Amino acid sequence: MPVLWSLDIAAPLAVLVALALDRAFGEPPARCHPVVAMGHYLAFMGRRIAPLIDTKDKRQAIEFALGVLTWCLGAAFCVGFAAVLAWSLNGWPWWAHALALGVLLKPMLSWRMLYDEVYAVETALAMSLPAGRARLARLVSRDVTELSESEVRESAIETLAENLNDSVVAPLFWFAVAGLPGAALYRFANTADAMWGYRGERNGRDWTWAGKWAARADDVLSWLPARITAALLAVPGAWQRLRELPAQAGETPSPNGGWPMAAMALALDVRLAKPGIYSLHPKGRSPTLADTEQALRLGARVVGALAVSACFTALFIAWRHFS
After folding, report:
1. Helix 94-105 × helix 2-25 angle, to 10°
2. Which residues pair with residue 52 across a beta bridge?
3. Residue pLDDT, tens place only, 263-282
4. Residue 179 contacts by C-beta under 8 Å, 6 or more apart in sequence?
5. Do 64 and 215 form a contact (C-beta atoms < 8 A)?
6. Which of 96, 156, 217, 317 is deepest in the core (most CB within 10 A)?
């Protein structure tokens, strides 16, 4: 019974610990950040599985198979290592278990850095448009050199909405489903998609087949969390507009990214677009500084809702244990 009690209460308390650590300290140093280590592995293997763009003899089946194999090897290591770490905490006092698990969970999520980076785009825009573009380039892979002030702001808000799912909601969803191994698997899959999941050229290499599995795996793991994120972004005063959410979300090439982005556009009543690709809530107005600030508040509200849910879950488990 004490072991089961520790396991039950540790998970929701670990979420609170992880969110508190994120707010207080942000990201751990790169040298001991597991996501950075994932990135090193993916970069190393990526140079070996994706052909150079000018390679004439391309073997699609082999590229795809190598992409699947190297992804699975990396995912298996991340899941296995996380499982060993989680297992090593069994038998600890419930409070120590929760604290240690929260420390291990923290690198799998990142809200403070996302908040700070999006706010920094607005700070840079206040200085000049080129400064705003340069700051935005740290967040997005698109070409920012010709973006207007409104388009820079739209891109920043889109990034906030999409990464609210990728960096907070989805890791915590998979932690709730499968514990620390689930969060580690999602973080690896999302990092692999960011580095490999391209249709065509990226950094001089052709990822059409080598990155296909990584892109599809992230699509599968993000499907439900993306829709949960969209629901959490819903604003009571915007219910009429939110009826358009499914149709608007379908405007983007991504099966998932459009959901939180469209929800944010409809909640703020602004247009969010990527020129030549999609336009979400095109009837909305161009976003202003106030809209970016409101978007950040909405994101913080979602994070707060997750913390409150974890708190109530812990209280319910404690009540059930002692009653």
Report:
1. 40
2. 205
3. 999 999 999 998 888 999 99
4. 11, 82, 86
5. no
6. 156
